[in-house]
Amino acid sequence: MFTPLHGTGGILGVPALNSVGFTNIIRVEEQFVNDPNFGTIKSPNPENKEAFKLAIDYGEKYDGDILVGTDPDADRLGVAVRTKTGEYNVLSGNQIGALILNYLLKQKKNQGELPTNAAVLKSIVTSDLGREIAEFYGAEMIEVLTGFKFIAEKIKQFEETGSHTFEFGYEESNGYMVKSFTRDKDAIQAVLAISEVALDAKERGFTLLEELDNIFSQFGFYKEDLVSLTLSGKDGSERIKEIMASFRNQLPTSMGGEKIAHVEDYLRSEKSFASGETAPITLPRADVLKFYLEDGSWFCLRPSGTEPKIKFYFSIKGASEAASTAKLEKIRTELLERIEK
């Protein structure tokens, strides 16, 4: 099932899929109508299950394996996958990125086409599952600040210096770049990539969800979450500053019963360790705090640059899905309780 959510993805999405051999495509026809009011949905955000409501109806009617949706300007991709019980599970941006990344690097490695200086780019608030995947295949994971302009800047540096060969770039907010000619996130490339991943998995007897479980079994069970707190007006702006100052000036030593190993303060360009040692951060300054736990899990505080919000990101690793979920709940609860005090 394919939906462009009333936007431009309908012009290129299906022809692109047809061009590489995907022909069994059911169009969500009502959402192929260009409509600036997005008449069939409340919000055309492919990160949310609500945006897939009509596509899910189509999936249930036509017994679809996967549902793919592009946002109206076709730069972000959403994916929903049918479960064993017949329901549809909307994948997170981190999960889609992990599936594409694992497939691309595995294929290139198996075919002897992965360069020795291969590099993958991700934002600092994107799950570290991608780092584990990249390092397993011999590629270097390089982090940048949030925003695809920073990924594009790195690609330009690679081309000028020859230091690395770009393989893949992505952010947790459902933005992906497979080929660097766009210099930005591109949902059409991502539609092709995730469709190929799904086909490869199906030929080996797996659904996309089962393929994701295979990745978790190999690299660890990661659970992510994002909490956005809206604080409008002058008072809200001051409250956001107070929250950041509180964490920056009184660094927690643990969260949810887990010890904090080091803190990355991107405003001070400094990484500080529990041992008292420090190290520089070479990225541009930004009002971001990231707390790493001893097991590699982390949580992050970042005020939005475009909205009156402060965002709390969580990337939790555990020995099982249940362990990751329980740890996430404890850490998230304690963090938000501290904010409310």
UniProtKB/TrEMBL annotation:
A GO BP annotation = glucose metabolic process
List the InterPro entries. Answer: A-D-PHexomutase_a/b/a-I/II/III (IPR016055), A-D-PHexomutase_a/b/a-II (IPR005845), A-D-PHexomutase_a/b/a-III (IPR005846), A-D-PHexomutase_C (IPR005843), A-D-PHexomutase_C_sf (IPR036900)
Q: Where's the Alpha-D-phosphohexomutase alpha/beta/alpha domain? A: 1-83, 93-209
Q: Which residues form the Alpha-D-phosphohexomutase C-terminal domain?
A: 269-331
Write down the EC number: 5.4.2.2
Keyword annotations from UniProtKB, A to Z: Carbohydrate metabolism, Glucose metabolism, Isomerase, Magnesium, Metal-binding
What reaction(s) does this enzyme catalyze?
alpha-D-glucose 1-phosphate = alpha-D-glucose 6-phosphate
Which PANTHER family does this UniProt record tie to the protein?
PHOSPHOGLUCOMUTASE 2B-RELATED, PHOSPHOMANNOMUTASE 45A
Protein name, as recorded? phosphoglucomutase (alpha-D-glucose-1,6-bisphosphate-dependent)
State the organism named in the record.
Listeria fleischmannii FSL S10-1203
